[in-house]
Amino acid sequence: MSEDDEPQPDLARGRMEFVDSLSREFRAPLMLLLGPLQDILDSPASALAPASRTVLETARRNALRLLTLLDTVPDPPGVERGPAASAREPADLAAFTTELASYFRSACDAAGLRLTVDCPPLPASLDLDRDAWEKIVLNLVANAVKSTVEGTIEVGLRAHDGLARLVVSDTGSGIPESELRYVFAAPDGSGFGLPFVRELVQQHNGSIDVQSTPGRGTSFTVLLPFGADALSPRPESLRPRNNEPPIASRGPAVAAPLPASRDATGTNARVRATDGVTGSRGHVVIAEDHVETRIYLAHVLETAGFTVDALADGIAALTACQIKTPDALVSDVLMPGLDGFQLIERLRRDERTAVIPVLLLSARGGEDSRIEGIAAGADDYLVKPLSGRELVARVDGAVRLARLRRETARREQERVRELSGRLVEVQEAERRELSAELHDRTSPQLAAIQINLAMVNTLLGGRETEDLRALLDDTAGLVADTTIGIREISSNLRPTVLDDGGLLPALSGYAEQFAQRTGIAVQLDTKNATSMLTPAVQSSLFRIVQEALTNCAKHASARNVTIELGSDDANHVWLAIADDGVGFDLDRHSRSGLGLLTMRERAEFHGGRFSLETTPGHGTRIRVIL
After folding, report:
1. Which CATH number covers residue 572?
2. What is the DSSP letter of 556?
3. Within a domain: residue 254?
4. I want to staple 285 with a disulfide (CB 3.0 to 4.6 A). Which of 9, 28, 326, 595 is the partner?
5. 358-362 and 328-332 strand pairing
6. What letter does residue 601 receive in the DSSP assignment?
7. What is the pLDDT of residues 122-161, one digit of tens each?
8. What is the pLDDT of residues 175-225, one digit of tens each?
């Protein structure tokens, strides 16, 4: 490789960036041109004078023509955007060519040129790539229009010696003979225009020739073989820039107005709420830095019945989504500060915004760009310019999907809550049974052991030794301590007072037992509490206090604990537990410890909130709101 060849990859990438920039900068204005034009044309016929409607239809057709020319720009050679799929099929070349050439009729009329299209039916069909043939015809005719100041442009198609022969001629200024050899050359390697046409023709095993007389005009002749001989592998650079149908298939020939129902590029923003759900169709956040595009998108969606927050950058959109979760987010890809991909990443990291449907809006089309957007976490990928109907339909679909997801999640939560409730009931029943069985089986035996020890002491009378007396006293003490311990275990499993007297007496009794057992002072304040609580809530609050005091005794090294239980007029019950212990580093231990996890789950099971405040050396405070 020579030194001159070394910069070619960078040069190709630079050209690719230029092509992408060209597409991006043109598509937003085209959307803003086509949208309002379609809005006006869709108004009642009486609102426009016939002459005004004709002028607006001409403007709209030429905006579509500009989009067509933009879509004919190929990728630079040496740059691959992804695998290309062949689209070869038999085609009625005469009808298709007539349709494509007629696309320039309004431009020729406006320039005072005469356009003649002579394409009678051919004796056989031609296997070809319709998208490639479209680019061949459009580039040749566009080149003729550009080169001709006055006179005629002729497009003819005939069968000639087993070949299809296309001739595009003009009466322009012509090309000097010394320059004819360079017509199909690309000095800068860009591959645009006529060099691109030659590449397309060669891919169909055809040929292209040019004849020109300075001052009289130029004629380009394309020859293509009929049948399977026209087929050859399709290069990557010929892949359509967008995954869209060929441009000419977006509507009928330009000589007639394009019906809105067949127009894939026109914008009909006036979609009535009756076209979808009635009333408010959902709340949408728009992130778009281009002011006019942002205003237009908001207008389309508001007209369709959505409520809209239209914001100028990704940071503002992220903040809006965190404050009030929208039903959907429409975001441009390229924005200052926080672009569309970064915005998605931030949204997906936050559990409050992780499930918001995101529709990316971009001027970059094609399979690779769409895959990149979906892989980044977008729910949909929209290419500018898009119609108002398409925008509304895509957003409405995203909103419906989001609502379906939320409803499904709500039902699952209810189902989990119901199952958890049954589990709690089973656990409490088992605790109650185990408590009763432990008490009923051990208490008589322990009582009998105490009686027997007393009888042994009586029978021995004064005959016992000092050692025997000490052994008897120690055994009696162990039996007494075991009896107390079993009673506490039984009460902790399911205190009978919780069933008989309710939560408040149960808390008071447990706090007293805890203080006696551990030496930690417990202050219980229930003056603002209500006794009108369901058994399930009473049981959960009691267990939270149990677990909090157990953690305090094991880990806090506290001397004092305060417990406050109260309720307010908003039908909320709150529980606060605070100690003066050593505290701990919440960041390091927030996910550890079965006790903390169990307390949180008990609170959230009843639809409540659990919070924990602690710092090393300053104690711990637990707050539960149900």
Report:
1. 3.30.565.10
2. I
3. no
4. 326
5. parallel
6. H
7. 887 777 778 788 888 988 998 888 888 899 999 999 988 8
8. 888 888 888 875 444 445 788 888 888 888 889 999 999 989 999 999 988
